[in-house]
Specification:
The complex is a heterodimer. Chain A is mainly alpha-helical. Among the domains of chain A are: about 5-55 and about 60-80, no CATH class; about 110-160 and about 225-319, no CATH class. Helix content of chain A is about 40%, strand content about 0%. Chain B is an all-alpha fold. Chain B has 2 domains: about 25-105, Rna Polymerase Sigma Factor, Chain: A (Orthogonal Bundle), CATH 1.10.1740.10; about 110-205, Winged helix-like DNA-binding domain superfamily/Winged helix DNA-binding domain (Arc Repressor Mutant, subunit A). In chain B, about 60% of the residues lie in helices and about 0% in strands. Chain B contains 8 helices and no strands. Chain B has helices at about 1-5, 30-50, 60-70, 80-100, 130-140, 145-155, 160-165, 170-200. In chain B, helix 2 packs antiparallel against helix 3 and helix 7 packs across helix 8 (about 170-200). Chains A and B meet through helix 1, helix 2, helix 3, helix 8 and helix 10 of A and helix 1, helix 2, helix 3, helix 4 and helix 5 of B.
Chain lengths: ~325, ~200
């Protein structure tokens, strides 16, 4: 390509006449690589864990970077010889480490809604049950005040202990080798395999609930196992919700989100589903609920790429 | 899209997080393609979002986000352009992530920014972690338009022709951005070295 002769331009890391510090800094990047665990975790979330069997960590880029890696080792050594010390305060402010999503969304126990009698009696309610936050939003939730058996279809309800930081129990993640066989096709009804029954802990404050309901403990909604079909099913539901929202069909959007949360207790697109819910609430002028959910979102997903969007949405809310 | 925005009582960002797609489910073929993309380009995406400013704690989530975006756009991704698409998505995701994190980043400027205080201690080695932090800071100081070119050329080892193709930019633009980025990077490094020397002299 004219004017793009790489031979005329030596990379900084290859330029012995350049700054040793500069080469050391660039070389440091080459030691910063994804861990096999991180790669497997992301693959599992995407429902493509089976691909790992093809050769984890040995992508086609490895060869292309091999030469650079060799140079990196040399330059790192050079950096040591130079002995240029850099003593500085940490460049990036220490930000709180967000809990892994698998933990945040892990247990039905943390969601606080599955053992709720109001949900057991309204399996077909069109109301959307917003996901509870593990971290309590600073703004009191208007829907957390009291149990509302016939929850308003316009009000997102949260689990009674959404802000109480209940013990979060990591959900068992299916092994990679089992996911493909276990995954149903997109759109297929959720499997009815019995999940372990999890009772929500007793509320800290006795609630003036009426008659104790019979010992009916609703198991958490069956969840599609991780696998090739799971991400597709999640994407389809979230997209359906957003498309319906865009078309002004708010009930359909709510129904799609409700189905999403019912089918995916710890979905990989939880954050995106929540953003759609926030926008839906805004569209319906449920400003308080939108602010509550948005604030909770930012507490749960402070580093999410979607956090900026939520910030923007919250900033536009009327005071 | 415009009609969507008009329905909202509040102005929403023009770019939705989740683009509506026509298909309700992904075919097995699409899933295979996504898997192949993941297999071939995961590490590249991971490094890209990391070098473009995503913090270590958030890099897996950001990587996932890139592939989620890809999963929605599979039909629009031209064969052979997967890596370019992923990098473009990585640039946007990293940009969102940086802003969300609220990390202090100066507005891109041709002027030398005030770098972090690098108080040296002569005789100590450059710690790898510290070096990466410094690199993040220096790369983060580059103007937005030059940063991807710098990352792809200096850190990923791509040729300028590959970069032009990846970023869909004219060759001359790639060359000029790279030149500008390298000059700024070298200036930042020189300033850092000068400080180190100065501190070493004064004890």
């Amino acid at each position: 390509m004219p004017g793009m002769d790489d031979h005329e331009l030596t990379r900084l890391i290859d330029d012995p006449g350049g700054s040793a510090l500069g080469r050391s800094l660039i070389a440091s990047a080459h030691a910063d690589v994804p861990s096999p665990d991180g790669r497997a975790r992301v693959a599992r979330r995407l429902g493509i864990a089976a691909v790992l069997a093809l050769g984890a960590g040995a992508g086609s880029e490895a060869g292309a970077l091999a030469a650079v890696w060799k140079l990196a080792a040399v330059v790192v050594a050079l950096g040591g010889v130079v002995g240029l010390a850099i003593w500085q305060a940490p460049v990036s402010e220490p930000a709180p480490v967000a809990p892994p999503r698998a933990l945040v969304h892990a247990a039905p126990l943390a969601r606080g809604g599955h053992g709720d009698a109001s949900e057991t009696t309204t399996p077909t309610t069109p109301s959307v049950v917003a996901r509870p936050s593990v971290v309590a939003p600073p703004v009191p939730s208007p829907s957390r005040a009291a149990p509302q058996p016939p929850a308003s279809p316009r009000t997102p309800t949260r689990g009674p202990r959404a802000g109480a930081s209940p013990p979060v129990v990591a959900q068992a993640v299916p092994g990679d080798e089992a996911v493909a066989a276990a995954a149903p096709a997109p759109g297929q009804a959720p499997p009815t395999a019995a999940a372990p029954e999890v009772r929500a802990p007793e509320p800290a404050v006795p609630e003036p609930v009426a008659p104790p309901a019979p010992e009916v403990v609703t198991p958490p909604p069956a969840e599609i196992a991780a696998g090739p079909g799971r991400l597709a099913a999640e994407v389809a539901l979230v997209d359906r919700a957003r498309t319906s929202l865009g078309a002004g069909d708010y009930p359909a959007a709510k129904a799609a989100l409700a189905e999403y949360h019912q089918r995916f207790a710890s979905g990989d697109l939880d954050a995106e589903a929540d953003v759609v819910m926030i926008e839906l609430l805004i569209a319906e002028h449920e400003i308080g609920a939108a602010r509550t959910l948005g604030t909770g979102f930012l507490a749960r997903f402070p580093r999410s790429p979607l956090a900026q969007r939520v910030h923007s949405l919250l900033e536009r809310l009327p005071k | 899209m415009v009609s969507e925005i008009k329905r909202f009582p509040l102005a929403l960002p023009a770019r939705p997080v989740v683009e509506p797609v026509a298909t309700s489910a992904r075919s097995a073929r699409s899933m295979d393609r996504l898997s192949t993309m993941f297999h071939h380009h995961h590490d590249f995406v991971w490094r890209s979002v990391r070098r473009l400013g995503v913090s270590p704690e958030a890099v897996d989530d950001a990587t996932q986000e890139v592939f989620v975006v890809a999963s929605r756009k599979l039909d629009a991704i031209e064969a052979g352009k997967e890596k370019a698409f992923l990098f473009g998505a990585a640039v946007r995701v990293a940009s969102d992530s940086r802003r969300a994190r609220g990390r202090r980043r100066h507005a891109p400027s041709e002027d030398l920014p005030e770098l972090v205080d690098a108080t040296p201690a002569a005789g100590e080695l450059v710690d790898q972690k510290r070096a990466r932090e410094l690199l993040d800071e220096l790369v983060g100081q580059l103007p937005e338009d030059t940063r991807p070119v710098f990352v792809l050329f200096e850190l990923e080892g791509m040729t300028m022709a590959e970069i032009a193709s990846c970023l869909d930019l004219p060759a001359g633009t790639v060359a000029s951005r790279l030149r500008r980025a390298r000059e700024l990077f070298a200036a930042h490094v020189a300033r850092l070295e000068a400080r180190s020397t100065q501190h070493a002299r004064h004890g």
